[in-house]
Specification:
Shape: globular
Radius of gyration: 32 Å
Largest sheet: 5 strands, parallel
Distance between the termini: 21 Å
Structural class: alpha/beta
Length: 406
């Protein structure tokens, strides 16, 4: 189902944008009209953070285009004259802003006035005109204010104009390009594979590098085994932590008051007291390596004894569902036949998408899946991409010469 209105958030942090997107999904039942995130050019309401350069520029564009605008307001700042949304984002404030939005109200665009050829001399004054040095008038025959009136005397003719374009002989000197000492603010960054010295230093700071004291302890994967692209501190999306050996042992993640999430890379499983929808924000932001807290040996033993671990293919499925944006991946034939090879237990987390999965247990065309599950084609595309991400999707292209179904 298409949304009634589109909102865009410009100038905010990635976390705030992801939080707003998640809140719009959660508040669909409370809002009088449906809203979705979209591009500024299609937005009915533009939310801007004028504390940033991008937000201030977007605010000016809304005034010129006559688009409704709401500003981000922080406690202690002056209240905006028009619509605003306080930080941190809260559901009640967002509902009040969106339900109070009048789609019929159009802001009159700011008129763009052309000043013509006089624009560059407007500040000189209308009556005063250009002031000419009286001493120069005597050098002009008959008071003719020609080109000679703009000369600044004989001294101007003696200037070495070529010196303005002559290169400084010291400009390329290595002593001028490379400082002979590092400043106090210089930082050292380790690159490449660990050396004997770096390993010895890391032994003395084991608590900050998260290196394991024993094979079963919590830690970060050996840098030698980690791909070069993931040997820094991040940030990376959650799917990278699931697909690459960044973590060597179980670690806990808990950010911004969200439910805790524990990953066990050896068993490719996760644990959390919350259902999948409450973990969505973890998939919509990038996570630093330092955000993960290692588990002690006792905590790992308790985790395995509790028997609450679930396969993290559920997280990969949810991640692709949220980032698919309703577009079918280009390698698929829209007229082909699709089905899944095994069931994914999502009925309590995403009951609507569970109906789509149930319809995909047997080979069907995309429109047949949508009809059987009473879903939109966009939701079917998202589900197809999500099951493809965890390797459970099978499909066949439409044979050549077969007529397309209506």
């Amino acid at each position: 189902m298409a949304a009634d209105h589109v909102i865009d958030y410009i100038g905010g942090s990635d976390e705030d944008v992801a939080h707003l997107r998640l809140m719009l999904r959660k508040l669909r039942g409370r809002l009088r009209r449906t809203w979705e995130m979209g591009a500024e050019i299609h937005a009915d309401l533009v939310l801007v953070d004028r504390a940033s350069v991008a937000g201030e520029a977007a605010h000016q564009r809304t005034l010129e285009r006559g688009v409704a605008c709401a500003e981000i307001w922080r406690e202690g700042d002056p209240l905006p004259a028009d619509r605003y949304l306080p930080l941190p984002l809260r559901e009640d404030d967002l509902v009040a802003l969106l339900d109070g939005f009048d789609p019929g109200s159009i802001i009159a665009p700011v008129p763009l006035i052309s000043h013509g050829a006089d624009f560059f001399v407007m500040d000189i004054g209308d009556d005063a005109g250009l002031q000419v040095d009286p001493n120069l008038l005597s050098a002009v025959p008959d008071g003719d204010l020609g080109a000679g009136a703009w000369q600044r005397g004989a001294a101007a003719q003696d200037l070495d104009h070529d010196a303005l374009f002559r290169r400084d002989p010291m400009a390329d000197d290595v002593r001028m390009l490379v400082p002979d000492s590092l400043g106090n603010a210089a930082l050292e960054e380790r690159e490449g594979r660990p050396t004997a010295r770096s390993r010895a230093r890391s032994e003395t700071r084991r608590e900050t590098t998260f290196e394991a004291e024993e094979p079963g302890g919590a830690g970060i994967a050996d840098p030698v085994a980690v791909p070069q692209a993931f040997q820094g501190g991040g940030p990376w999306p959650l799917r990278d932590y699931l697909r690459h050996p960044i973590l060597a042992a179980p670690a806990r993640l808990e950010l911004m008051g969200l439910p805790p999430l524990v990953l066990d890379p050896k068993q490719e499983s996760y644990d959390s007291p919350a259902p999948l929808p409450e973990l969505e924000l973890y998939c919509l932001q990038s996570l630093k390596r330092s955000d993960w807290q290692p588990l002690s040996s006792a905590e790992i033993a308790d985790l395995h004894a509790a028997g609450t671990l679930r396969p993290w293919r559920r997280l990969l499925w949810m991640d692709r569902l949220l980032t698919s944006d309703g577009r079918l991946e280009p390698q698929f034939d829209r007229a082909g036949t699709f089905w899944i090879t095994r069931w994914l237990d999502i009925i309590h987390d995403y009951p609507h998408h569970a109906r789509i999965a149930s319809a995909m247990m047997q080979p069907r065309r995309l429109h047949e899946i949508a009809e059987a599950a009473k879903a939109t084609m966009t939701e079917v595309f998202d589900s197809v991409n999500a099951f493809h991400a965890i390797g459970d999707l099978r499909w066949e292209a439409k044979p050549r010469g077969e007529p397309r179904s209506a």
